Structures are given as structure tokens and as C-alpha cells.
Amino acid sequence: MLRGAYGPYRANNDLLYYHLDIRVDPDQKSLSGRNTIRFRMLRDGNRIQIDLQDPLNVDKILLGTTPLKYERDSGAVFVNFPETLRAGHTYSIDFYYSGHPQETGRFGGITFKKDPAGRDWINTACEGIGASIWWPNKDQWRDEVEDMDISVAIPNGLTDVSNGHFVGKTDLGDGYTRWDWHVSYPINNYDVSLNIGNYAHFSDKLGDLSLDFYALPEDLDKAKTQFAQARGMIEAYQHYFGPYPWAKDGYKLIEAPYSGMEHQSAVTYGNLFENGYLGRDWTGVGISPRFDFIIIHESGHEWFGNSVTAADPSDMWIHEGWTTYLESLYVEYRWGKSDAIRYLNGYKPKIFNKRPIVGERGVNAEPPEDQYFKGALMLNTLRSVLNDDARWFALIHDLYQHFKYQNILTEDIVAYCNQRTGMNLTPIFNQYLRHAEIPRLELLFGEAPGSVMYKWRADEDDFAMPIRVGTPDHWQIIHPTTHWQTMQSSLSKDDFQVDTDHYYIDVNKQ
Ligand SMILES: [Zn+2]
Fold first, then answer.
1. How would residue 11 be classed by pLDDT, with cut points 50, 70 and 90?
2. pLDDT of 310-320, one tens digit each?
3. CA 169, CA 196: separation in Å to the nearest integer?
4. What is the pTM of this model?
5. Alpha carbon of 463 to ligand 1 centroid (Å)
6. H/E element, 475
7. CA separation, residue 456 to residues 72, 295, 375, 386, 411 (Å)
């Protein structure tokens, strides 16, 4: 609960800046160093909550030269100040820590591995478990620093690729070299990353944007071929949403020993240098093998996930539903709308409809996997509800521009869409996001000759959504509600179709 809740000792301050300055020892599999944390107090107080998970040690916490007292409670570290910190004032503490972080979670959180040639390969990927698995920070999603410095001392000969732009490296004279990176934008904690290895580097430019690529030397040729997809990916997403969000930091793609992760401006890649996802046709309709799923998906998070960020993991569909939808926009940009729709509908077999997509707030729980595929199909459904592609593309472009660099909740997106369209889309969003089941169109034939009765069965009482029915060469839009209505149709029960490719719904004909 301390991890998930935005409690009083988190809410009383606003993060401004981190300088994470650490030394990484590959042989000992250990870290040591400090995070300088600058924050502005929003209320008077003498205590704040920072997080650092066991088994890492708190060595000392300083305000200037004054050591501060602290109490650890599970992953939380409550830092106590001898005098009241004043609202509106800015303070800075140096949080020193050390130890052997524990490998845990889907991608290990932080792993001390060897590459296939036996050289050190150390990587972080900690979205679920939290960044406090390897460094001290205010480990939540609501508040982000405005900018950040990352300094990583590692044995000479290795390279560290972190987030932001490369500032320089300094030989420390003791067998270690410090690599300095500067992040010029807000960044969520779990995006902060280490990628330490024997990397080979090559680069490219897309207009003024620098593109930097890092791969193990044995994979360099494959990387030069596969990573070329980054250009077309950025062009496609810029077409729909506007400029790449981190111009000053550049775009980096870095080989890593797991499938991939959207680390801000430093996307990690482990998709075998093959198209599809880990060698598979990911949506099973022959389109996924045309592109590298990890490059297209993880980089899409630069727009939705990293720039537009959910303020609580409960609303993580803002990252995953949108980015899955972005995959289809990439397909549409390259190969047209009908392939994009086929690609999206290929996701249907992966959807369970067992639990709502938006989960409980303040408990640091990841929503079910439906947030990806059902989230994307919901957005495709909304496109059909608008029934005007020019309006739809203007809406999602402007929505991104409105919320970029912000941490938001589902309600913010719904309110924006309602205001921009002049429609009440709240029941539609609620049905797809806050209930397990999708709407079902009930059709009743043969009550009267040449007529069909129709209504929605939905959990939302005021659910109302237009839908295309009839035949594909002659669709007709009807406006069902949760109450029966009647339409005239000469089509038989078997010939009467519903456009389930463009609306993600169930249909029940009787
Ligand atoms: Zn994702």
C-alpha cells in the first residue's frame, strides 16, 4: 500500500530533479552511490516518502551537510527533517545507498548477465516491480522530475547507454570510467535505465533528430539492417501525432537480453533481429511479419506512456491500449486502412473480457492484458462512432498534443473527447474500460414482416452507440440504446450483417 498509495508524505512535495550518480561493480553484482533529489514543498511538513527496496542499504541521507533521520517500512523510506520544510520552498537531499539488488519480475528488474561472448551485460527493466528495486526515488507514477542527470561509473572498456543525450565520459583513474547522460524532459522512474555492455555504436539522422543505435559487435550487421525500421516508425507516428517528444535527447535503440522495453529516448530491443514478435506472426493475419514488433510497439510508447503518462498504474491502458492502437496506425501509414483493420482484428483472440481494464487506484496493481488489445479495439470502435476519419485523426492528434508531457487519468481522456466531439462518449468508454464484458447488439427477427428489433445489452444503463448494419456494400447506421427499437429491413436473419470489423462488439440474432 505504501508503494501504490499517493500518501501524505508523497503528496506534500513536487519532484523537480534527480541526479543519479552511481558506481556499478559487475563482479560483485553491486551498486553504490547516491541520488540527489530536488523537490518543492507543496505544504509545510517535516517528512517525505522516498522508496528503496530491500536488500539495498540506506547509507546516509543528507540535507546539505546535515544527516537526516529516516525510518524504513517495507519499500518506503520516510525521511524526517529536523525543522519544518516550508510550502513553496525548494529543497535538495542526497540519498546515499549501496548493496546487491535482487533480480525479480518479468525482465529481472536489474540483471547482471554475460553476453553470448562472455562479457559483462547489465540491464534494467523495472516497470512492474518499480525503479526502487535498484535506485532510491519517489517510486510512483503521478509525479515526475522536470529533468535528470544520470552518471554511471563502470569498468573501463564497457559502455553505459542511459536515457537522454550523452554528455561525456571521464576516466576516473581507478579502472573505472564515468558515463554522463542528461535527460532534458520529465521522465517516469521506471524508464530510467542502465544498459552496460560491450556495445558497438552507429548513428543516423532524421531531419534534426539524432538516431543512435547500440548492439553487441557480433550483431552489428543484423542491427544495421533491422534498426533501419526506426526511421519509418518515427515518420509514421510524427505524421499522426506531431514531433517525436524528446528532440533534445535524441532517439536510441539498444540491444538488451530481454524482448524489449520503452525506456524513454533509449528503447531496448531483444527481438532476434527478425520481423514479427519473437519470430511469430503476432496477430496471425500475415501483417505482423512485415515489421519488427518491438521497434514499432516499444517506440510508440514515446508518445503514449512516456510523453502522455498514466498517473496511476490502474489507468495503464493509456500506455498499452494506445500504443497497441499505434501499431495499427503504423500499418495504416505504410499499407493502408484495410490492412490496419485486419491487423487490429487479429488481436481479438487474445482478449478475455474477464476483468475490467481500469483497475483499482492507489494499490500499484497492473491491469489485465486486455488493456492492450481490447484497449486498441475500443479506440478503433470510437473511430467508427465518429464515422469521419478526418475528424478522428484531428481528435487523436490534438488529444496527444493537449496531454503531452503530462500524467493523466482515464477521466481526462474521456472529458477531452466529449468536449472535442460534442458527444457523450462516457458510457462507451465506461463499458469498455470499467466492465468486463463488451456491448452486445441484440437483434430480434420475425416479430413483424420486414422488420428487425434491436437494442444494446450493456452494463452501462445509458449505453448508446451507433452501429453499421445491413450488408457491406450497403451499410446503414442505426442508433441503438438499451431499449428496443424497430427498423424496416428486407434482409433475412442470415443476410442481415453487423460491421464487427469496425466495432468491437458481440451480436446476438434471434
Ligand atoms: Zn507496451
1. very high
2. 999 999 999 99
3. 14
4. 0.97
5. 29
6. strand 474-478
7. 52, 39, 20, 18, 24
